Structure formats: C-alpha cells, structure tokens
Amino acid sequence: MTAIGSGGAMGTAEASPPPGPFGITERIRRNWSARSGQERLGLRLLLPIFGVVFIVATIPFILAVVRALTSDTGAFVGADNFSRALGNEQLYESLKETAIYGSLVLPTEILVGLGISLLIHRTVKSPVIRAIIYVAAMIPIVIPQVAMGVVFRLLYIPDYGLINALLGQTGHDQFLWLSNPPLAIFAVASVDVWQWTPFVYLVMFAGLQTVPPESVEAAQLEGAGSWAQFRHIALPYLRPLLLLVIFFRLADVLRVFDHVYVLTGGGPGRTTEFLSLYLYRIAFRFFDLGQASALAVIVMAFMIALYTLISRFLPADTS
Amino acid sequence: MPRIVKRILVWAALGATFVVFIFPLYYLVATSLKTKAELFQAVPTLYPHQPTLEPYFSVLITRGFLGLLINSVIVGASATAIAVAVAFAISYPITRLPVQRGMRNFVLNWALSLRFLPPIAVVIPYFTIVRTIGLYNQIPALVLVYTIFNLPLSIWMLKGFLEQIPAEVEEAALVDGGTRFQAFRLVLLPLAATGVLAAGVIVFAFDWAEFMFAFILTATPQSMTFPVGVQGLVTQFEIIWNDMAAGGVIAIVIPLVLMLFARRYVIAGLTFGVIREK
Q: Which has the closest alpha carbon to A189: A199, A176, A201, A178?
C-alpha cells in the first residue's frame, strides 16, 4: 500500500550473503537482490523481531503437545492422556454446563444489545446523551472481571447481599443465588450479560451509523414499517458485525474464568464449572498435567478448526 | 397509541435499563464508603450513612495491598511498553514499507488467530516454563506472559493507526532529501504518537485486569497483582465487605480513568479495527 519507490537513502548498500554449496543460498541471494531496496529494508526490519516473537509464542503450544503425549516422568505414552481426558465423565458435564452458559448469555447479549442500539439510534438524537451512553457502555469492558465478581457478590450473597436483604424485608424467602444449583448458573451468567451486552450495543450502534439515511428515508416514504426497515435496510449493514460479535463472544465463553471463580468457584457441586475452570481443576488441583495438557490440545485443535472455518468472515485484510 | 406516549415509554425503558446497569457499580462504591458498624446492621443500607475512607486505608495500608498495587503497575507498565514497542516494530514494516502481501497477511492472521485461543489452553506450558527457568512467583514471569498475550491486539491496533497516516507525508520528507530514518523519526513518529499512546492505554488496562495467569504464576505478596489480592479478600475475609468493596473500587478506577483518555480507540481495539469511531 505504501508505494514508495526505491529512492530511500537507506537500503542502497547491500551485503549479499555468501554463495552456498547447493545453489540454494545462491537462489536466495538472487531472489533477495531482485527486491527493491525498500522491500529489503522492510523484511530486514520485520523478520528478526517477528521471527523471535513467533518462536517465543509458538513454543508453549509445542510444549503442550509434547506434554500431552508423555507421562509425568517424560516417557512417551502415546494417546494415553487423550483417552483419559476424553474418558473422564466430568468433562462432558463441564461441556454441558459451558453450553448452557453460552446459550444463556449469547442470545441475551446479542438480542438485548441489538435492541437497545436500535432504540437509542431511533430515539436519542442529542449528541451529548449519545456520548454519555457511549462512555458508560465502555465501562464494563475495561474493568477487571474479578472486581465484577466482588460487585455481584455484594448483591447475591445470603443475608448481607442486597437482593436477599430486600426480599427478606418485603417478607419473601431468600434465594441462595450462589449455592443453589439451578440459580447459580443464572447468577454467573448475569455478570456476563451485564459486562458484555454494552459491548454488543457499541458495535451495533457503530454499525447503524453506516446505514445511509437516504435509504431509511426512502423506505419511510414508501411506507415501510419498523420491522421492514430493520430487516431490509439496517440488517444488511449489521450482518457482518453480528457475525463478528458472535465469533468473539463464542471464543470468550471458552475462556470464562475470573468472575465465576470469585462468585462460585465452580460450585455448587460442579454446576458452574465451565471448561476453563474444569481444566484448571484437573491441572492445578489434581496436578494431572498429562490429562490437562491432552485436554488443552483438544481445545486448541477445536479452536484452530473453528478459526479456519470462520476466518473468511473476519477482518482478514482490506487493503 | 399516540406518538408521545410511545416516546415516553421508550425513554422510560432506556432510563430503567441505564439505572439497572449502573446500580451495581454505585452499590460497590457506596459499600466501600461504609463504616464497620454500618456493615453489621441487619439490613444493608443503600448509601453510606457516615461516609468514611477508612476501608481504603485498611485495604491499602493495613492489609498491605499497596504493595500489590505497585506490583500491578510495574507488571502492567513493563509488559505494555514491551508489547507496544515490539508491535510497532512489526506493524511499521507491514504498513509503511512494500513488504509482500503474503508475508503481511501471515503476520496479521497469525496475530488474529491467537486472539481466539483460550488462555487456559497454554497455562500448563507457561507454568512449566516459568518453573523451569526459575521465574515462578517473580514479576518478570508475568511481564513475559502479558507481553505475549497482548501482542496480537497491539499489532492490529498499531496497524490500524499507521494505515491511516497517508503515505505522502513520508514521501514528501524523502523527496526533500531526508533519509528513511529521518522521515520515520521526524514525520511518522509524531503523527503516530496518539495511536501508540491509545494502544498503550488499552493494553495496560487489559494487563491490569488479568487474573488467571497472575493467580497461577504467583504465590506471595512479593509478586502478586492487585486482582489476585482482591480475590483473596473475597474468600478469606467475607465479613469485611467494605474492605472488599474498596479493593474492587481501586481495581476498577485505574482502568476506567485510563479508558476515558483512550475512549475513541477502545472499540476499534477490541474489534481488531473492524469498527472505527469517527
């Protein structure tokens, strides 16, 4: 994209690599001098740093695979760890809870976030109020999830928690939000919804700004109703953003850890022990690093497959 | 339904949503300003009747969380500086110099793909590496991990900022007889400074908020970060809700203030540049 010719002052004096025995370095050398000075400068700046970063970031993945194939003493055990990981019934309970959590939070966040963005886009015209909402919606994104765990503890715990206190005061029974199995998952999901619905709102609201007002006016003149306007005019602009949000949030459900750890620690029983918490327990409570590594490799393989599948919808590169 | 009634209903719904949304944060701040005596009332109060900063003193000084706060700042500042510097060194050639498309796309896709991997998947190898090289319970271990984890985001944010600077400004410097390095230092760098700062602020906020790795890789207050300390308050001293709330407020205030400075870039950063605020 930067079409600067080879006129740069740097990159004119090149030290060519010495010729190698099998003509390979010779070919590299010819290839190298065929590039413009600017291009060589670019590669010379990029490759050393990116090379180091790539290696440093890749080593842990390789180590995870190696660990998954070996025992505690380092002996090769083949698929043993994998069969233990996949044979553990608790894995499937954890996956089930993770799926329930995902199906609670994702539709809620997306529908509510989208709904609010449409409402605000249509109703609130004052730039000042829009700016206040913009900043307020950004608050949950940047604050630590551990702190959110603290906030919702203050609301949910028995006796002292505000919700229970209000229920008690009005003569109702308390709800054990965090220690009653069917309620606990709603309690931890509510934190997720609180934290990420505003993110969906921000993305959708930004998307609505790109809808040309002329099309909306034209549709209104032709008497299109609210739903028709949304369905045929706004939605085409929002669709790529919706996909993006769904993929980001889907990946995030698999990394849910902090606020659940603070609120329930995975309990009661294991009803809020989502995938990350399950893996944590296998690795750092049972110290079964082999089984945990095998599971980590499976999760990685799954995410790589998912990423390959969805990457063409992502902002790969535009220029 | 008349138009005006509809409008009032919509505004009421939006207002109610806003109150429900902001209330938890309000209640956290209110609790953090309560006295111990007020905590032991049978019914929790909605606002502090005798506001006091004592819980903040208690958390920071008596419990020694000031040390954790300093650890968090050191870890966050170091990891942010390294991540942004390295990301700049990678983004500069792929946006400002004619690097082949294939190479450029490889770097960007590699970075983007890292965003989708759950950190728990690599926590065991990092744990093993950190133990092996003797960095367990040491601040540099967290700096290393946070640097790697925030590189993808940093690369994408800086790529977005650098792309927006027209190529002509550097070309003009070159035509005027400047070297590429001069064009970089005197023309591009000042123009890119805002973007670099914004990226730094966002990355720092994420480093600040990180919990899982800090929890697994540290063991004592010597290297613990602030969120780990706050989590410890929750499980051990459940009775002292005001201290716990004060810890929560401190954990929230710092990224919040930073975010206000970088507010125009937060969404662009989080969506890898798909959304650009004007």
A: A178
A21 prior amide bond cis, ω within 30: no
- The three-point CA angle A291-A293-A297 to 5° equals 120
Site from B7, B21, B97 to mutate, A interface, most A CB atoms within 10 angstroms: B97
* Neighbouring residues of B121: CB distance < 8 A, sequence distance ≥ 6: A64, A279, A296, A297, A299, A300, A303
Go through chain A and tell me how many residues it has. Answer: 319
Euclidean distance between CA atoms A155 and A160, whole angstroms: 8
Chain A residues touching residue B107 (CB < 8 angstroms): 46, 50
At B235-257, the pLDDT tens digits run: 655 567 888 899 999 999 999 99
CB B64 within 8 A of CB B70: no
pLDDT band at A31 (very low <50, low <70, confident <90, very high): low
Option in A61, A155, A307 nearest B27 (CB): A155
pTM: 0.87
DSSP letters for B218-230? --STTT--HHHHH
The minimal CB distance from B181 to the residues A10, A150, A251 is found for A10
Closest-CA residue of A relative to B248 is A147
Q: Where are the alpha helices (DSSP H) in A69-88?
A: 80-87
Whole-angstrom distance, CA of residue B37 vs CA of residue B32: 13
Helix or strand (DSSP H, E) at A193 = helix A181-209
User: What values do phi and psi take at B54, rounded to 5?
Assistant: -55, -40
Question: Domains in chain A, ordered, with CATH?
Answer: 24-68 (no CATH), 89-313 (1.10.3720.10)
The band of A9, judged by pLDDT with boundaries at 50, 70 and 90, is very low
Res B50: pLDDT: 84
Residue of chain B whose Cα is closest to the Cα of A247 = B116
ipTM for the whole predicted complex goes beyond 0.85: yes
Contact indicator for A80, A165 with CB cutoff of 8 Å: no
Phi, psi at A35, each rounded to 5°: -80, 155
The mean predicted confidence, pLDDT, of chain A is: 84
pLDDT in tens, B80-122: 999 999 999 999 999 888 888 888 888 988 888 887 888 888 8
Backbone region of residue B277 per phi and psi (left: phi > 0; alpha: psi in -120 to 50; beta: other values): beta
Lookup: tokens for A94: 């954890």
Burial, B92: exposed, middle or buried (Cβ in 10 Å; 0-12, 13-18, 19+)?
buried
DSSP for residue A8: -
Q: What is the percent of chain A where pLDDT is above 90?
A: 39
Q: Quote the pLDDT of residue A22.
A: 57
Q: Determine the pLDDT at residue A14.
A: 43
Of A305, A298, A303, A306, nearest to A282 by C-alpha is A298
Q: Work out the percent of chain B whose per-residue pLDDT is above 90.
A: 44
C-alpha to C-alpha distances, A289 to A66, A71, A294, nearest whole angstrom? 11, 9, 8
Whether the CB of B61 is below 8 Å from some CB of chain A: the reply is no
Q: Summarize chain B as % helix, strand, coil (round to 5).
A: 75, 0, 25
**Is residue A272 very low, low, confident or very high in pLDDT (cuts 50, 70, 90)?**
very high
Q: In sequence order, what are the beta bridge partners of A76?
A: A70
- Best of A1, A142, A285 to disrupt the B interface (most B CBs within 10 Å) is A142
